[in-house]
UniProtKB/TrEMBL annotation:
Subunit note: Homodimer.
Family the entry assigns: Belongs to the Fur family.
Keywords recorded for this protein, A-Z: Cytoplasm, DNA-binding, Iron, Metal-binding, Repressor, Transcription, Transcription regulation, Zinc
Record carries keyword Coiled coil: no
Name used for this protein in its record: Ferric uptake regulation protein
Positions in coiled-coil regions: none
Primary location class: cytoplasm
Domain of life: Bacteria
Pfam families: FUR
CDD domains per the UniProt record, alphabetical: Fur_like (cd07153)
Subcellular location per the Swiss-Prot or TrEMBL entry: Cytoplasm
Length: 146
């Protein structure tokens, strides 16, 4: 963790090392600051909520994490170690799915080229219902019809 922080130009502190270690060790890929705070405290790490906010801001500026904003959600952070991807978000349960679609990437590149631009980054978030929530909505609708 120390080498990653040093390579990113960040000062090496115990709290930063513990927070980065936490982010790399858990299975979850999208974190709110509150999730991180709770996860660290569940591990017995005494890091305050304000410190987590501050550290995540430093991590974002250094390029270690990417901050995402989704409709009616708190900011969500993900490690900046994955290829460019897009998101599907369930409006009912909040399920968040990363996906990569080469055809979307191709179309975005062609659109940018057509307009004389190059893409530095993009954000594509699609909102709908996961299969489970759609099934529950369909059942509810069927009951209301009878």
């Amino acid at each position: 963790m120390q080498a990653v922080l040093k390579d990113s130009g960040l000062k090496i502190t115990t709290q930063r090392c513990k927070l980065l270690e936490f982010l790399t060790q858990v299975d979850e890929q999208h974190f709110t600051v509150e999730n991180i705070y709770q996860g660290l405290n569940a591990r017995g790490e005494a890091i305050g909520l304000n410190s987590v906010y501050r550290i995540m801001t430093h991590f974002e500026r250094a390029g270690l994490v990417v901050r995402r904003l989704f409709e009616s959600e708190s900011a969500v952070y993900e490690l900046n170690n994955k290829p460019r991807h897009d998101h599907l978000l369930c409006l009912t349960c909040g399920k968040l799915i990363d996906f990569i679609d080469p055809l979307i990437e191709l179309r975005l590149g062609l659109a940018a080229e057509h307009h004389g631009m190059s893409i530095h980054h993009h954000s594509l978030n699609m909102y709908g219902y996961c299969f489970n929530c759609q099934h529950a909505l369909d059942k509810k609708s069927d009951k209301q019809k009878t």
